[in-house]
């Protein structure tokens, strides 16, 4: 199920689709307002669609000159994006939701980035570590790249499914992010580390790190990982510059169907970020969704699953009641509830906040419950 949800994380008006833009179209968008863009993304396989589009000149074909800035995590670039330092950022949904709900940012998701697949994210230790099982992580130090982000959420879920609360593990934030973490793990700075690819494979190749647990399991199988966002103000000011979306979606399609293109793109990253041919050949990839429509078309069922799981694991700043419009248009409790993994029955979808219970009121259209015209199309995440 897909529906227009261009204001999925915000109270903003709907994104204006880029003129002449569609996911599969190759037409160059006329008159982009801002041809030079600064884009911050984490240099991981989550962003493979972006790197393929950059490497193959797809942004240039849309009249856009894109400057890539490596990010430690989406958490670390949100404030700079709100200040106008970055035009577009790509990162994990959890950090964006936290920023939106805390009032630190007003963001629009305009494209999906990636969905977790086997081997793409995992917990790693060193071969001489006394930690051989997840249970042996109790009281140990585990590194992540940002506080309480998606890696924390995925690790907490896997630990919980093995009978250990996340509170029994000491999570620490590696200040220099993924690029420095393999060497820090090897040097004994922490007992284990949560890596996204290609950094898991880099740690294995360079230092002999060994995977302790794959995070694509149980309740977090095929979990929504990354999205691309702009601020509300940016979307309103530069609607045609979302020609970026056309090139990105082309990159997503290539990344999802041509592994060699992803390998080439990551081998071509600047400086020390470039992966070796060996790592490129060994690293696991995620899947890269392609939208059938203009900017703002995202798989809301997939995203609400991520939201529900974050709420269950009490990620700070994430609530799991959803409602549409600026007024509540569904009865209190209609979309609230819990979500979780039942070992006997799998993911309990009936317990996930149900987006189908919400009504999307378009501008000027009367709400089903208030009878008043809506001012904007919106799906807001609100405090329970």
Structure description:
The protein is an alpha/beta fold. It has three domains: 3-115 and 224-300, D-Maltodextrin-Binding Protein, domain 2, CATH 3.40.190.10; 121-220, D-Maltodextrin-Binding Protein, domain 2, CATH 3.40.190; 318-382, no CATH class. Helix content is 29%, strand content 19%. The chain contains twelve helices and 16 strands. The chain has helices at residues 48-55, 58-61, 74-82, 93-102, 150-161, 177-186, 199-207, 232-237, 243-257, 259-267, 277-282, 300-312, and strands at 3-4, 36-41, 65-70, 88-92, 107-115, 121-125, 141-144, 170-173, 192-196, 210-214, 224-231, 297-298, 321-324, 341-342, 346-347, 379-382. A five-stranded mixed beta sheet has the order 3-2-4-11-5, with helices on both faces. α1 (48-55) crosses α9, α1 packs across α10 (259-267) and α6 runs parallel beside α7. The chain is globular, with a radius of gyration of 20 Å. The protein starts with a strand and ends with a strand. Residues 1-28 and 315-384 have low confidence and may be disordered.
